[in-house]
From TrEMBL:
GO terms for molecular function: guanyl-nucleotide exchange factor activity; translation initiation factor activity. Its main location: cytoplasm. This is Translation initiation factor eIF2B subunit beta. It holds the Pfam family IF-2B. Belongs to the eIF-2B alpha/beta/delta subunits family. The keyword Protein biosynthesis applies. It comes from the Eukaryota. SUPFAM superfamilies: NagB/RpiA/CoA transferase-like. It is found in: Cytoplasm, Cytosol. The keyword Nucleotide-binding does not apply. GO terms for cellular component: cytosol; eukaryotic translation initiation factor 2B complex. Component of the translation initiation factor 2B (eIF2B) complex which is a heterodecamer of two sets of five different subunits: alpha, beta, gamma, delta and epsilon. Subunits alpha, beta and delta comprise a regulatory subcomplex and subunits epsilon and gamma comprise a catalytic subcomplex. Within the complex, the hexameric regulatory complex resides at the center, with the two heterodimeric catalytic subcomplexes bound on opposite sides. It comes from Dermatophagoides pteronyssinus. Keywords: Cytoplasm, Initiation factor, Protein biosynthesis.
């Protein structure tokens, strides 16, 4: 199939929301870029980098609220640079402390010249292998997180969560299979109410489950031992972008000194910072009819907003349980330098 046709089809799927879930978006993005790298005759590695950066900009323009797409493009660009440095015998220890100071324009231009002097066929195979390892990381991410459940969930604990996260669901079910007896309180996450689905799923596994309204979160927090949630993305400062209602949950947990645990794969870690507390710039909105039915006569007299996400600052988060183990919000800064290259942050 022609590359432009593949690209247009993929962009339409992203824009129309036909690919649901962060994992599926991440995997489809990696497979698309991998196909581009393998099936294109490159003359210079710098051309490959520039083309992938161009695609990354296009993805962001089409779907700016799904950072995993941008994350995967930048992870692949990091892989290309690492394989290049490996062939040169140079270790890339560029930190993420100061993009401008650590990666000045002259240094970037010099490395681009060095890249062009490397035989493309030598690097292409090693890049394909490294991308295959990235795909394997995505595939095993959920399982690796779930296997850590017995380190965080103990006998007779009361766990509180909100909405339905597939990662949290697998995490809780794994603990139950290890014969841990515990209770789960699920906040329904109105107005989508996908917490209902999680409550039903857990109950089928004989896990003691209670479903509550979001308004009851603060009143039950005093009897909760841990809060365990999933997230849409991890921001560069260690904060998270999670389902609407999570910030309320985090504040209640802070008030009662309850550990706030976030289960997430590292593919959701984004080098982006919270640019603004302005919800129009940060958030995504769904139809307000879920909140106030359009049939009501007074619905035309008020403005109703239905935000999809909440921002939770790092000081409210205890630990991230990820596919690479437990990580505190203060460690996120270090992980960014390991997963992404500052030159790509400037370019995309």
């Amino acid at each position: 199939m022609d590359y432009n046709k593949k690209l247009n089809e993929f962009l339409i799927e992203i824009k129309n929301g036909k690919i649901s879930g962060s994992y599926d978006l991440a995997k489809r993005t990696v497979l698309f870029v991998q196909d581009l790298i393998i099936n294109t005759e490159w003359t210079k590695i710098s051309d490959m980098i520039e083309k992938i950066q161009e695609i990354g900009k296009l993805f962001i323009k089409i779907q700016p609220t799904e950072p995993v797409i941008d994350n995967m493009v930048k992870r692949i660009l990091k892989i290309i640079r690492e394989e290049f440095n490996h062939i040169r015998g140079v270790r890339d220890d560029e930190a993420f402390d100061s993009i401008i100071n650590l990666w000045p324009q002259q240094q970037q231009q010099q490395q681009n010249q060095d890249i062009d002097n490397v035989n493309i066929s030598v690097v292409k195979d090693s890049i394909s292998i490294a991308i295959g390892e990235l795909l394997s990381e995505l595939d095993t991410s959920g399982e690796n997180i779930a296997q850590q459940a017995d380190e965080h969930i103990y006998w007779d604990e009361v766990i509180l969560t909100i909405g339905r996260s597939k990662t949290v669901e697998a995490f809780l079910k794994y603990a139950a299979k290890k014969k841990r007896k515990f209770q789960v309180i699920v906040a329904e996450c109105s107005p989508d109410n996908n917490g209902h689905d999680l409550a039903i799923s857990l109950a089928k596994e004989n896990i003691n489950t209670i479903l509550i309204h979001d308004s009851a979160i603060f009143s039950v927090m005093s009897r909760v031992n841990k809060v365990i949630i999933g997230t849409h993305s991890i921001m560069a400062n260690g904060g998270i972008k999670a389902v609407s209602g999570t910030y309320t949950l985090a504040l209640a947990a802070k008030q009662y000194s309850v550990p706030f645990i976030v289960c997430t794969g590292m593919f959701k870690l984004t080098p982006k910072h919270l640019a603004s507390y302005d919800q129009l710039a940060f958030n995504k909105f769904e139809s307000s009819e879920k909140v106030l039915n359009y049939e009501y006569s007074y619905s035309v007299e008020c403005q109703v907003m239905n935000p999809v996400f909440d921002y939770v600052p790092p000081e409210l988060i205890t630990i991230f349980v990820s596919n690479i183990g437990g990580t505190t919000p203060s460690d996120v800064y270090r992980l960014l330098g390991e997963l992404y290259h500052p030159a790509d942050e400037l370019a995309i």
